[in-house]
Amino acid sequence: MVDHARAAALLSFDQHNIRYTTSTVIGEWARDKLTRYSLLTGNGDPYIWDFGSAAKHHRLYAPWLHADHCKAGLLGLRGAVGSDVTLFREAATEIKSILDAEGVGDMPLGLDVVEPPMLFELQKLAIEVRDGQQVMLAAREVKNIDELTLLNMAAAMVDGVYQDIAEALKPGVQESQIVGLATKRLYEMGSDCVEAINSISGERCSPHPHVFTDRMLRPGDPAYFDILHAYNGYRTCYYRTFAVGSASRALVDSYQRCRDVLDQAIAAVRPGVTTAEVVELFPRAEEFGFPDEEAAFALQYGHGVGLSIWEKPIFSRLVSFDYPEEIEEGMVFALETFWPSSDGWSAARIEEQLVVTKDGCEVITRFPAEELLVTAGGQYTVAGKLPGARETTSNLNNPRLADAVVDSARFEGANAR
To answer: Long-range pairs for 163-167 at CB < 8 Å and ≥24 separation?
Structure first.
């Protein structure tokens, strides 16, 4: 796994890389502490430094690790301990002694993320530090059958949660209540980490704020969600859009545009195709209301999914033309699209996760999304069932009046760069 052309050993503080190299984890709370770390050389077995009690636990219950490779360790806790103590110096000295013992002490060391004092102490020992994150991301890019199974399980859990959300979406429900519902259900199903639930509704849909509030849903609202959770470490990134009770023509139109772009991109995925060829099918930022690709980043987008939400490969008009990546069998990534509606406040957002097969891809996110779903409908009037496609306020649905909503122009130029 270690690329000797770039690094002879890998020192990891990134929790996902530690899990990948040691198969140990002590909970999501450790994600931002930067105090756990692991070391793997090309000539030996992995080491793990952990909280003292966790290290003892590994020695007892992680037989795939050597007991003397499970060590107690403590560093700066992101500066809380301070950089003037000897902890960093002692840790760097211990790491250097292991590198020397395994015959790679004079070779480059790959490092992913780190507190600056630790980096400085490594450099004082004449250790050449290189970008180990790229080595690890490349190693994690193509998934094996066990990883594919876990990613499918994680997606299946979200399939079920979206059914619960669809049944719960009705006027009076708050965005935060949907977050609570989804979080509870995921943990009941066996999730080991609910990283985030994006819950966005009504006028908050455009521009996309990427954070939920206690806003109350109203009739005719658009509502979209992104569910990010992990099953045995393997994650989902999975958007769906709904309309509460009914959908305006503007929302129906934006949803169809969103779906059309996504379907074109999915159809293009197969081994040998590059990320640049896929993003050629995405609209330019200017076509959906943004001044440039940086301002629109992550709206028409794709990203690898595995132990973390954003892995390689990346699909974006901002970077993929200059840095194209070749798609390979066994990759797993999400493609996501966004389109603001012509009414100026509603919008649609859809995302699918794919496994690349030998001749195409398989979509593993299965909650229906080919058409816009309307929830909490079924109301009847004296004239019959209330239509699912109608404007938000009653006066705009009077057939004796001229249309108050002007249909926006159909999407053109999706294939233009």
So the answer is: 163/367, 165/225, 165/240, 165/242, 166/242, 166/373, 166/375, 167/375
Instruction: Express each pLDDT in 207-234 by its tens digit.
Output: 999 999 999 999 999 999 999 999 999 9
> What is the CB neighbour count within 10 angstroms for residue 6?
15
The dihedral built from the CA positions of residue 199, 204, 209 and 212, taken in this order, carries a sign that is: negative
pTM: 0.90
Q: Which secondary-structure segment (H or E) carries 57?
A: helix 52-61
Q: Where are the alpha helices (DSSP H) in 224-310?
A: 249-268, 275-279
Q: Quote the tokens at residue 117.
A: 């004092």
Whether the Cβ atoms of residue 317 and residue 301 lie closer than 8 Å to each other: no
Q: What residues form DSSP beta bridges with 373?
A: 242
Residue 124 tokens read as 């004082």
Burial class (CB in 10 A: 0-12, 13-18, 19+), 27: exposed
CB 46 within 8 A of CB 11: no
In whole angstroms, give the CA distance from residue 341 to residue 327. 32
pLDDT digits (tens, 9 = 90+) for 104-148: 999 999 999 999 999 999 999 999 999 999 999 999 999 999 999
CB 354 within 8 Å of CB 269: yes
Helix and strand counts by DSSP (H, E) for the chain = 9, 18
The 3-state DSSP class for residue 152 equals helix
Helix segments in 85-218, DSSP class H: 87-101, 116-124, 132-140, 145-168, 175-189
Strand partners, 297: none
- Residue 408 is given by DSSP the state P
Identify the sign of the CA torsion 296, 320, 20, 124: negative
Give the Cα separation of 300 and 320 in Å (integer): 12
Say what the alpha-carbon torsion angle 20, 25, 28, 30 is, to the nearest 10 degrees.
Answer: -100
179: alpha, beta or left? (left if phi > 0; alpha if psi -120 to 50)? alpha
